[in-house]
Amino acid sequence: MAGPIPPTAYGMWRPTDGTLQTVVAGTVAATVDTSGNQDFPGDVKLSDGGTITQASSKSTGVTLNTHTGQITMNGAALAAGVEVTFTVTNSTVGAADVVVLNHGSAGTAGSYLVGVSAVASGSFKATVSNASGGALSEAIVLHFAVIGGSAT
Fold first, then answer.
1. pLDDT digit string (tens) for 112-133?
2. What domains lie within the chain, and their CATH numbers?
3. What is the dihedral angle through the alpha carbons of 82, 64, 140, 111, rounded to the nearest 10 degrees?
4. Which of 14, 56, 75, 120 is deepest in the core (most CB within 10 A)?
């Protein structure tokens, strides 16, 4: 008999530098140090996602409690040069987190400026500006991802 088959995934404590490594199929998949800082070489994938649609206007808040998601905005008119802000209530968001937001699909490409204007524990504010020369009445789709941050 050749001996036991090695596991394909395991954790390894490294007392020399105080880190815990997760190894999958012989490759380090994540490292956590004694301060709780995490390092993920390669791609970081967040698997819990969802979708939500604004109910009555472009300023109507939405609730979506996932790390990633798609928000379909209301199709109400947004005048040229005007911006609108709405709150995304999300229990996965911490006050020190980074929220990435972009114009994902639908609507006129390049006509909107999209950003996060505030982050708080349990929510973030999304701001959308009409950068075109005329009013737009499009139900654009925003994509977001919540990345755990750390207060320093």
1. 888 898 899 999 999 998 988 8
2. 9-39 (no CATH), 49-147 (2.60.40)
3. 50
4. 75
